Amino acid sequence: MEEIVPAVPLYKRVHDTLIERIVSGDLRPGAMLPSEFNLGTELGVSQGTVRKALIALEAAGLVKRQQGRGTFVAATTPETAMFHFFRLHRIDGTQATPEPARETVRTRAASAREIAAFGIGRSIGRIRVFEIRRIRKIDGRIASREMVVLPAEKFPGLGERGVLPNALYPLYEQSYGITIARAEETIRARAADAETAADLAVMPGHPILEVTRRAIGISDAVIEFRFSQFLTDSLTYDVVLK
Fold it and tell me: DSSP code of 208?
């Protein structure tokens, strides 16, 4: 019996075509998209279909529609990266921006866990990654430690850049053409072990919040694996559900 393949809605085809152009670099961050009329003519669909695709892209944070000006590919700035991806707030509700106090960058072989996270098919030992370790401060006090792991093949020359910017996602976009579309996180509370306690300047056993993140690009590939540990004595980790 012949399998029946469901038809892809027209707006989804337009949506996917525009994503392909963003991923390939044909449409760079900040670039203006063609008008709804021109896109409809090019792709053989109605303006209403194009509009539906653009609404879906805007909801995903990939484009921004400006009244009277047009539709633009969303560009990540340090400010928007902090707002969307840093969840720390002070007890009074104000956003707390962590600043790097110490940083090391090295290359090494990827672990089995990292290969699985990045969905890379090659064997252990053949995949190289950049490992970025940071101790961060908030309001002058040590607040977190983090390890960021990136596939080296996607970020050539990262280790030679010197001190990295506080917000990494604008760097990924501006220097490597990689846009982070969303992040998936696993959160748990635990007691600090001796190494963690030493880095955070607390006693072993001190309560900490541990966050494991997979940052995902527009093409649905995992771009970054991040492991963070926070002191939350005077901070909260806020999550917005939609």
Answer: E
**Distance of alpha carbon 86 from its chain centroid, rounded?**
10
Q: What DSSP string runs through 75-111?
A: ---HHHHHHHH--EEETTS-B---EEEEEEEEEEEPP
- Domains of the chain by start residue, with CATH: 10-73 (1.10.10.10), 81-237 (3.40.1410.10)
Which residue bears the tokens 């982070």?
180
Name every residue whose Cβ is closer than 8 Å to that of residue 228 and which is 6 or more positions away in sequence.
144, 145, 146, 147, 210, 211, 212, 213
Per-residue pLDDT tens digits for 102-115? 999 999 999 988 88
Q: H or E stretch including 181?
A: strand 180-191
| pTM score | 0.75
Q: Please choose, from the candidates 88, 182, 78, the residue with its C-alpha nearest in 3D space to the C-alpha of residue 138.
A: 88
